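To whoever is on call:

I kicked off a structure prediction for a single chain this morning and the downstream step that reads the tokens threw a length-mismatch warning. I double-checked the sequence; it's 296 residues and nothing unusual in it as far as I can see. Pasting both halves so you can look.
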Amino acid sequence: MDLDNILQTIFNFENYGELLVLVQNSLWAGAVLGLLGGLVGTFVMKRDLAFAVHGISELSFAGAAFALLIGADIIFGSLIGSVAAAVLLGFMGVRARDKNSIIGVIMPFGLGLGILFLALYEGRAANKFGLLTGQIVSVDTVQLQALAGTAVVVMIALVAIWRPLSFASVDPEMAEARGVPVRGLAIGFMVLLGVSVALSIQIVGALLVLALLITPAAAALRVTTSPKLVVVLSVVFALTATVGGILLALGSRIPISPYVTTLSFLIYVVCRVIGRLRSDRGSNGRVTRDQPARAL
């Protein structure tokens, strides 16, 4: 089979308009999760919790797989697993070495449990695959309302603790000396992160959740140092990846997650190149200005 036939087999945009009408709920869900991921991701980067997101996602996957096995609500199972992992990590404090070692233990344990539960599950194979790669094209109105409601609660809570959490994220020792409840904020944010991970799994699945909660914020940090602009760009990048991924996946047989992750990666690459060019230009400018002084 040549490349043209392969592309025709994978991509088919003949009925794209009809499909677009049917996935309005999915697009709104993607937009909500993109907004949530962009906001939470900024603090994930500030607090150096990229590895923690992966560990939480593994236990979230295990909880969702167990819920699927016993016939319970998958989102509820995912929330239980991710929040349990997040609270555990939150109580561990800020010692990065200890935290990373525990996460390294949690990740294979959660993934192993999830695979065990999926192996015992005798239902549709698509349900198993969806936990790993995301499955948002079938979001109904009730699911959308529950998703949006939960996301709104998380975002309101995040806004409420935004200022002290920012202070504690940048300089935890100084924040603690000034009476900021650093430990409580750490635990509170980890709970919010756990809920965000559980919700994001619907888009990209347990294995690729980093693309929604980390990559957009990491890309934003490459092009600006302004805290406000980082938040805005992180949200814009996350929305572009999620909604764009859904729109591309409608005319394809490929799951949504590869599109979301690829768009996120491309955005990051472009931002990294822009940041590098700015850095090189700034260095050249300083050299040019310094040369006359050295000559004198």
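Update from on-call: the warning came from a stale cache, not from the record. Cleared it. Sanity check on the structure: The radius of gyration is 21 Å.
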